[in-house]
Amino acid sequence: MLLLVLIAAVTTGCSDDTQPPAAAPTPSASVAAQLDDPPGTLTCTKVVSAVREGTLMTPGVVTDIVTASTTADAPVADEAQRLSTAFTAAVAAHNTDNEPDAIAAVSAAAAAMVKVCGDSGLETVG
Fold first, then answer.
1. Cβ pair 40, 14 in contact under 8 A
2. pLDDT of residue 23
C-alpha cells in the first residue's frame, strides 16, 4: 500500500503535461473607446504631437492618427480623413513638380485638425 502511495505521489509530481500560461486577453473595442475619454483625445494628442515634432510625413504617423480617430467624434474624425486624403496625395506626388504643394496641403490639413482639437478642448486634455 505504501508503495502505491509513493508511486502515485512521484508520478503526479513529475508530470510533463504543463499547460502554457494563458495569453492576456486583448482589450475589446469598448475598452479602447473608454481609454479615449473624451472621444478624440487620443487622436488630438497624436496629431498635436506630430505637428510639434514635425513628423507628419514620417511613414505610419498619419495612419496612426487616422486609426485613433475611429473612436473620435465627427469633427475630429472628419479632419483625420482630410489629413489622410492629403497625405495620400502627397505620397503620390513624390518626386513630381506637385510635391511641395501636396506636402503643404498635409500641413494645412494638420493645422485645421489641430484647430478643431483646440476648439473642442481636446488639445489640452491629459
1. no
2. 47
The torsion region of residue 15 among left (phi > 0), alpha (psi -120 to 50) and beta comes to: beta
Domain boundaries, given as residue ranges, for the chain: 32-120
Whole-model pTM: value is: 0.71
Total residues belonging to the chain:
126
CA distances from 71 to 32, 42, 76 (A): 8, 9, 10
**pLDDT band at residue 122 using 50, 70 and 90 as cut-offs:** confident
Residue 69 CB partners (closer than 8 Å, separation 6+): 40, 43, 76, 77, 80, 81
Q: Give the highest mean pLDDT range of 13-17, 26-30, 56-60.
A: 56-60
